[in-house]
Amino acid sequence: MKKAISKLKIYLISVVSILVTSIVISLVGFSFAAYLNTEQQNQTININMDYSQYFDGNNSNAESKTYAISTSDHLRNLSKLVAIGAFTPDFKFILTKDITFDGEPLIPIGSDNTPFYSTFDGQGHTIKNLAVVGSDLADVGMFGYVANGATI
Predict the structure, then answer these.
(1) CB 71 within 8 A of CB 99
(2) Over 60: is that where the pLDDT of 64 sits?
(3) N or C: which end of the chain has fewer CB within 10 A?
(4) Cα separation of 91 and 150, whole Å?
């Protein structure tokens, strides 16, 4: 009977040791994976892309990161590209003529997740009949969310 109890104790100690070891290994692995994930998110990736195809290419200058807006579609393109975080603070967007907005409504330019960081210069031009989507959003208007340092 004493041998059976001793064997049972050894068996239980072995099982507990294996479980504790498994838990420790899992926690270390999880912590390391979380560390790696944090490191990846802190890396900046610069992609030098010419966005002229989304704006008025005749009046845009990719080298100076200045893009001309002259149609409703150009405004919608600005909104979509800001939503994916395509632009940095050194980009400049200029309105090159008055626009009578038409077609699909505009999704506000910038959100709390991807704010508008750049410069928008209307150059004294106007946008008439602007329709904006987002009556259920907190930040509604032509510009939904603008970061500190942006210029409009």
Answers:
(1) yes
(2) yes
(3) N
(4) 10
